Structures are given as structure tokens and as C-alpha cells.
């Protein structure tokens, strides 16, 4: 009677392991030319980091948009 739950648990572990083994890796490939042009164009936005009208509101870092695939 105890071997049936163990077999079910073992089958679930094996099935989960095989699913994780065959799943593709999740990663993004960045275009180096696109990132370089984005960084060059966002270099002029560094002066906008501190907004004198709203000093308490954090500004978006200009280069963060370049890292999106």
C-alpha cells in the first residue's frame, strides 16, 4: 500500500525533471550595434537626471531603455 504513493511521487519528480531538462533557456540576445547607437543618443539625456521642478521624483536613467531586447 505504501509503494503506490512513492511510485506516483517518483513519476512526478522524473516528469518534472525531464520537463526542466528539455525546456529552452530563457535569455535575450542584444544587438551590439543597436545598443551602441542607443547609448550614444542617450548620452545627451544625462542632464535630465535631476529635474529642478520636481526634485523628489526620481528620473528614469537614460541608458536603461537600451538594455531591452
TrEMBL record:
The keyword Signal applies. Keywords: Signal. Residues 1-28 form the signal peptide. This is Uncharacterized protein. It comes from Nonomuraea jiangxiensis.
Amino acid at each position: 500500500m505504501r509503494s503506490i504513493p512513492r511510485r506516483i511521487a517518483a513519476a512526478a519528480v522524473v516528469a518534472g525533471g525531464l520537463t526542466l531538462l528539455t525546456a529552452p533557456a530563457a535569455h535575450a540576445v542584444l544587438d551590439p550595434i543597436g545598443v551602441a547607437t542607443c547609448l550614444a543618443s542617450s548620452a545627451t539625456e544625462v542632464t535630465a537626471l535631476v529635474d529642478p521642478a520636481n526634485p523628489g521624483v526620481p528620473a528614469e536613467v537614460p541608458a536603461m531603455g537600451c538594455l531591452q531586447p
